[in-house]
Every structure is written in C-alpha cells, then in structure tokens.
Amino acid sequence: MEPIRLAVNGRTDVGRVREANEDSIRCHTDPDHPFAYVIVADGMGGYSGGATASKIAADTLQHHLDSQLDSAFFSCTPEQQQAALHTSLANAIHAANREILNAKSAHPQLAQMGTTLVLAVIWHDFLIVAHLGDSRAYLWNHYGLQRLTRDHSVVQEMIDSGQLTPEQAQESNIRNHITRALGVSDHVEPIINSWKLTENALLLLCSDGLTEYLDDRAIEQVLASHRPALDCVCRFVDDANRLGGRDNISAGVLEFTNRAEARAENLPDAITLRPKKEDITVRREQR
Asked: Are 175 and 153 in contact (CB under 8 A)?
C-alpha cells in the first residue's frame, strides 16, 4: 500500500457584496499516484476581465499539471522529477501570463485584467508552492501555522520596511494594492519554493477575500480544530461571509498523510517541514 495519501477539497464563493465571482480554483488528486495540486487565482480588472484572467490562469496551470505524469517523467530519478516539476511549473506560469496578454490584445475591453496566483503541488513527499500577488499558502502542523508565501503588495513592503505593523496593514486603505500579478507585463516573476514533507500536513491556499477577515490566529484555530479537515474550506467561506463577505472568497485544502512515518514515530498529527537552502525560512519553534 502506498504510504502517502493525498486528498483535496476547494470552494469558491461570490461573497455578499460582489455581483460576480472573479476567483477561480482547481483541485486534483491522481487516482493512481501520490500526486495532487490546488490552484487559486483571484482576478482583477472588472467583473468580466477578472473572471476571464483568473480562468485563463487556472485552466493553463491545470492543463500543464494534468500532463505532467508522462513516460518521460516516470523514467527520471526522484531528484530529476523534482527538478522537472519546478521547471514545468515555471513554464506553465509564463504560459498563463502569455495567454492572458494575448486575450487582452484580442479584446480591448479586457485591457485592465490580470490575476493573482497561488498553487501547491505534491508529488510523493515533495511539496512545491508558487505564487504571485496576495493570494496565500499556509501550512498547519503541531508547531502551529506557517505562512509559506509573502504577499506581493504595497502594504507588505511597508511592513518589511517598518512603516506599518501587520495590524495597521490590515486596516490600510491600500491593502489590496499588489505589486506582482499575471497579465500585467511580458516579464513575470513568480516565487517558487519547495520542501520535503515527512509527516502529516494540512495546506491551505486562499484568496484575499478570506484573509481580509481571518488573521493567522483565526486560520490556525480552524485548521487545528475543524474536522473533517477537508471541510475547513466550507467553514472558511462561511466565516468570511458572516464577517462581511465584501470580496469573492476562495479556499482550497490539501491533506497530506504519511502513514509509514506516522506509524514509525507514533505522531499521527505531526509533520516536519524541511526547507532546502534556497527556500524561505520557516518557523519551527515547538508550542
């Protein structure tokens, strides 16, 4: 029996104020191999434009990932497969950017459209996360909640420079001004990081329609306590709507279970996140 078990669930909702949903979400688990992904794109540029841009991004990434597991991929070593995933992901993001730019050229009424993007892919115990904009990826474990992405936004730059506290940024009237997105220019710079997962994990990917209302502490509380874990997506959407629902809300959860490691360590709810040298630093203090 394959020791790795992957399960995903996702939900997107128009919210309580917007007339249309400009978010797109895609979730997939392979029936025969330990391969899964979640994609969240938050469109911008008007109702039609935002929805079009996010759909193009999600569809393009989905197409590339669905064709990943071919004979050439299976013939590679595990290290080569990881490198191939990284390259494929980068190529897919650039392809999505081109598709959006081409659509803007063909339809001038969509000239202002673009989209954020965050996606997570797991192959066996290898996790890779890519993002542009302020849609986020989180990982929850017995150490607590770890944010795996840093927003590409004006307020994040102000936080980094000490001009704002995170609490002040949450109330800022420019908190939705992003500095990177798909479909804005020919040159696109996604951030792509990877880790090795050794034990059980919950990953959350979401648009800012969720994080506008739920801070990291509230997100952690839901991931730590709400079961079944995959139903967290419904809880997140319901909570954001209850608190105002001014924006579209999207949430995807990917559940990683390493049966062999959990049995060996007798830690059914624990996971270790081991960053490579080039990866972002993650918090590892035990609670």
From this structure: yes
Domain extent, residue 17, equals: 4-275
Asked whether residue 281 is domain-assigned, the answer is: no
CATH number of the CATH domain containing 209? 3.60.40.10
Spatial CA neighbour of 5 closest among 200, 137, 270, 267 = 200
pLDDT band at 275 (very low <50, low <70, confident <90, very high): very low
Give the model confidence (pLDDT) of 128-166 as tens digits.
999 999 999 999 988 889 999 999 988 888 888 888 777
Residue written as tokens 């990932």?
Answer: 65
How many Å separate Cα 129 from the centre of its chain?
Answer: 7
| DSSP 8-state assignment for residue 180 | -
> What is the strand order of the sheet 4-13 is part of?
4-13, 249-258, 201-206, 136-141, 144-147
Label residue 170 by pLDDT band (50, 70, 90): confident
Phi/psi at 188 (nearest 5 deg)?
-130, 140
Tell me whether residue 285 is in a domain. no
Cis peptide before 228 (omega within 30 of 0): yes
Domain assignment of residue 81, yes or no? yes
pTM reported for the whole predicted model: 0.89
- At 265, the pLDDT band (50, 70, 90 cuts) reads very low
Residue 210: which H helix or E strand, with range? Answer: helix 208-211
What letters, b where the CB count within 10 A reaches 16 and e where it falls short, cover 188-218?
Answer: bebebbbbebbbbbbbbbbbbbbbbbbeeeb
To 10 degrees, the CA torsion angle through 241, 246, 247, 252? Answer: -20
Q: Does residue 284 belong to any structural domain of this protein?
A: no
Calculate ∠ Cα 222-157-212, nearest 5°: 30
pLDDT tens-place string over residues 210-228:
999 999 999 999 999 999 9
